[in-house]
Amino acid sequence: MTAAASFAGQTLSWEIRDGVVELALHRAPCNEIGSRTLEELERFAAALPDLEDRAHALILYSQQAAGFCAGADLRELYARASAMQKDAARLGVRDFLERIHAVLNRMDMSSMTTIAAVHGVCFGGGLELALVCDVIIADKMARFCFPELRLGLIPGFGGIPRLKRDMGNAVVRDLLLTGRSLNATKAQAAGWVSQVVGEGEALRVARGTAAQIGKFDRATSAAAKAFIKPIPSEELRREMDLFCELFQRPAVEVGLKKFVESADAQPYLP
Question: Of 51, 169, 168, 66, which Cα lies nearest the Cα of 114?
């Protein structure tokens, strides 16, 4: 087994089991995506060519009890927003977005069939990470939300174009403009969750689904995926530009400061 076939990092790990790559998120408390997670995701993206030669499917899941992923590391983002050199802060945010988009686009276009096994919180950047996957399997306690507007921002990791790719604009507008959360049943009815399963069952069902996928010809599956799941490159670029434009506004620093200073154990919840 090559070095790329397995990895154990500070925020995530992966290994190949029965022809399936299992990518586990394990940064406490709820897999917030900051610089360290991005670095390890980049390492995963670099390993994908080797992994794609060895496996037919990818399962992405969380080992944290709180949920799949609470989104971007807002404390780190606040540190950027309050930096003395505002121009440097903006450039830092742009660089982070460029890098996370590159990783998520690479995962999106993988020749493997990709499955997100979701439980608990799946908010903001976490929902954007799940939307990269071809199939989302959610346990009945999962909740999905784009809460970015209360920070004066929009989703910045590609969530809007990918959600529009997968479903109608009406649901996208509702999620974006109200900031409300949807449970797994409503997400399935809306069309972006494929299966709702019992509490704690998402990973088990995802493994069964990956085994079923392994029965089919790899080249045919990859061709079908490429046909039905194009990368919305232009819209992704426009979303990134708008995020960076909004990030310069004073309202963003105020919103992030309120989040950072919150005494709530889970301030990302609605």
Answer: 51
Q: Terminus-to-terminus CA distance in the chain, angstroms?
A: 44
Residues 84/87/92/93 CA torsion (nearest 10 deg):
100
Q: Rounded distance, CA 80 to CA 129, Å?
A: 22
- Would you write out the chain's pLDDT as a tens digit for each of its 270 residues? 565 889 999 999 999 999 999 999 999 999 999 999 999 999 999 999 999 999 999 999 999 999 999 999 998 988 877 764 566 667 788 999 999 999 999 999 999 999 999 999 999 999 999 999 999 999 999 999 999 988 889 999 999 999 888 887 778 888 888 888 999 999 999 888 999 999 999 999 999 999 999 999 999 999 999 999 999 999 999 999 999 999 888 888 888 888 888 777 565 555
Total residues found in the chain within this entry: 270
Residue 111, token pair as written in the block: 């020749």
Q: Which of the 8 DSSP states describes residue 134? A: S
- HSE-up of residue 219 (Cα within 13 Å, Cβ side): 0
Amino acid occupying residue 204: R
Q: Give the Cα separation of 130 and 229 in Å (integer).
A: 14
Sort residue 85 into left (φ over 0), alpha (ψ -120 to 50) or beta.
beta
- Return the C-alpha torsion angle 176, 182, 188, 189, nearest 10: -80
Q: Which fold has domain 3-260?
A: 2-enoyl-CoA Hydratase; Chain A, domain 1 (3.90.226)
